[in-house]
Design brief:
Pfam families (chain A): KaiB (PF07689)
Helix content of chain A: 25-40%
Largest sheet of chain A: 4 strands, mixed
Distance between the termini of chain B: 79 Å
Largest interface: A-B, 37 and 36 residues
Organism (chain A): Accumulibacter regalis
Protein name (chain A): Circadian clock protein KaiB
Oligomer: heterodimer
Number of strands of chain A: 5
Shape of chain A: globular
CATH class of chain A: Alpha Beta
Largest sheet of chain B: 5 strands, antiparallel
Strand order of the largest sheet of chain B: 2-1-6-5-4
Strand order of the largest sheet of chain A: 2-1-4-5
CATH superfamily of chain A: Glutaredoxin
InterPro entries (chain A): KaiB-like, KaiB_domain, Thioredoxin-like_sf
GO biological process, one term (chain A): rhythmic process
Strand content of chain A: 25-35%
Radius of gyration of chain B: 38 Å
Helix content of chain B: 40-55%
CATH architecture of chain A: 3-Layer(aba) Sandwich
Chain lengths: ~100, ~400
């Protein structure tokens, strides 16, 4: 199984974002395994060109680059369990109200 | 937003054109996404929010909500600028395939206003000045923390009351009539007023009252901002005392100089000669400033000696300073000015008690410095009457040692 590669695009890194990333990391460690995932964080306020190059339209957006297909999740990144259930799957299962 | 997917599906009149016209008319951004988050449709409002970025066929991402509610997101336009939006989503059937319709409400301005309000709230609460907001009839509707700190009245005690709560009885009716005339005529009043704290004590405050008008030009509120002048008044009194002591010290110095500079002595020719020339502070401003700095340090050390019972070499430093003053051919007025400038500089912004100690110790310090300076002149001009030496030495040293004893 290839390592899960994720990029999180945020607009400004604050305590709330740090906590969400930490929470996501803990869930990944537990559910995916300690060495089976990597997560990069891109602050679009610092590097807006990366958002434009990566076709990222809004933040927070979590992008699953590997495994394919590329999958993007937009919105409440704090919902770690919900996010994991989607990115660990084949990539469909968007949410409605 | 109210979407009724089931009704749309069941309604025989539903057709794609009708839905698109409905979406197109909406001020919110409306985006239809397929099961992977690919944009199938976006209305004009959505394109505007993304600054004209091409959306159709792009992967926006699958919306993730917190609970059943919405998510706050930031949208990125074609220039990389970020705006704020409220995202809501609902699943429905779009032309026979499962889809998500996402609505985006632009809340950039609302967020900016919220930030401004939060900032204004913080300024209000954390201002060192007391702030009191009343209705036009004078009833208090809000006060800040400093109001409570200064007056002793809590927010709850102040609410519903009027500022007469603080009335001291120190001002007559005419005073308040003038105040209200100014507020009615010019929209504000500014001045000093004496008020009474909850504990009954009186305090002076500097008060500004402003009229706040609503959009129709009607008076909506009155805002009073005040600072407690108690410490300021104390400082003013201490400064006035310092100024008087300085005057006395200067007179004393001139008297000492007059005693020791006898007619035809070389000292007179040097020191006395200075009266006709420019003061050191002007003729050698840079050097004088450095002397002020050094004398200030010595003064600090002298106060430390008193406060902490230590033995900083104050007298040695004064002698060195006097030697330098002597080489510069300084006179009594130069020493007095040095002393005055140093006190002004060193007592600024320090507690009143420390300023007082510095002023008192300074009186003896300046006498010792003057004595050292005269000693310098005497040493370098040996014809000064020898009889004067023991008297001068014993006078200044006795003065300084008395100062130390007196303060212990």
């Amino acid at each position: 199984m290839s390592k899960l590669q994720l990029t999180l695009y945020v607009a400004g890194v604050n305590d709330e974002i740090r906590q969400q990333v930490a929470s996501l990391g803990r869930t990944m460690d537990t559910e995916v395994g300690l060495d089976n995932w990597v997560l990069d964080v891109v602050d679009v306020l610092e590097e807006p060109e990366k958002a434009l190059q990566g076709d990222v339209f809004a933040t927070p957006t979590l992008v699953r680059l590997v495994p394919l297909p590329v999958l993007k999740l937009l919105g409440a990144i704090s919902q770690s369990e919900k996010i994991l259930s989607i990115i660990a799957s084949d990539g469909t299962g968007g949410e409605g109200g | 937003m109210s979407l009724h997917p089931k009704k749309v599906q069941e309604d025989p009149s539903f057709d794609k054109g009708a839905v698109l016209r409905l979406f197109a008319a909406m001020p919110d951004g409306m985006i239809v996404l397929d099961a992977m988050g690919i944009v199938l449709y976006a209305n004009d409002s959505a394109h505007r929010m993304f600054g004209g970025r091409r959306l159709l066929g792009k992967n926006l991402g699958l919306p993730i909500m917190a609970g059943e509610s919405h998510a706050d997101i930031e949208v990125i336009d074609s220039a990389g600028r970020v705006g704020c939006a409220e995202l809501r989503a609902a699943t429905f059937d779009w032309l026979g395939q499962p889809a998500t319709v996402a609505s985006l409400r632009d809340i950039t301005e609302r967020r900016a206003l919220e930030r401004q309000l939060a900032l204004a709230g913080q300024v209000f609460e954390n201002a060192r000045e007391g702030i009191i907001v009343t209705r036009p009839d004078g009833v208090i509707v809000s006060v800040n923390r400093s109001f409570t700190t200064i007056t002793g009245y809590s927010l709850e005690e102040a609410l519903g009351n009027t500022p007469r709560l603080l009335k001291s009885g120190e001002h007559d009716r005419a005073f308040f009539e003038r105040m209200w005339e100014s507020i009615a005529g010019q929209g504000f009043w500014h001045g000093e007023i004496v008020n009474r704290r909850k504990d009954g004590s009186l305090y002076p405050e500097l008060l500004s009252i402003s009229r706040i008008q609503d959009g129709d030009g009607q008076v909506a509120h009155l805002v009073g901002i005040f600072s407690d002048l108690t410490q300021h008044k104390t400082d003013q009194a201490a400064l006035e005392e310092a100024r008087l002591q300085l005057q006395q010290s200067e007179k004393l110095l001139e008297e000492i100089e007059r005693r020791y500079t006898v007619a035809n002595s070389p000292v007179l020719s040097v020191v006395g000669g200075m009266y006709g020339s420019a003061p050191l502070s002007r003729s050698a401003a840079g050097v004088f400033d450095e002397l002020v700095h050094r004398y200030g340090r010595t003064l600090e050390l002298a106060v430390e000696n008193l406060a902490f019972k230590v033995d900083n070499p104050v007298s040695d430093q004064l002698r060195e300073l006097a030697d330098d003053l002597g080489y510069l051919q300084a006179g009594a007025r130069d020493v007095a000015e040095l002393h005055a400038q140093t006190l002004t500089r060193n007592t600024k912004g320090i507690p009143a008690a420390k300023a007082k100690a510095m002023i008192e110790e300074g009186r003896f310090l300046v006498l010792e410095l003057m004595g050292d300076l005269l000693s310098f002149y005497r040493k370098n001009y040996s014809r000064v009457p020898a009889a004067a030496h023991p008297e001068r030495d014993s006078t200044t040293k006795a003065l300084h040692s008395r100062a130390k004893k007196g303060s212990t």
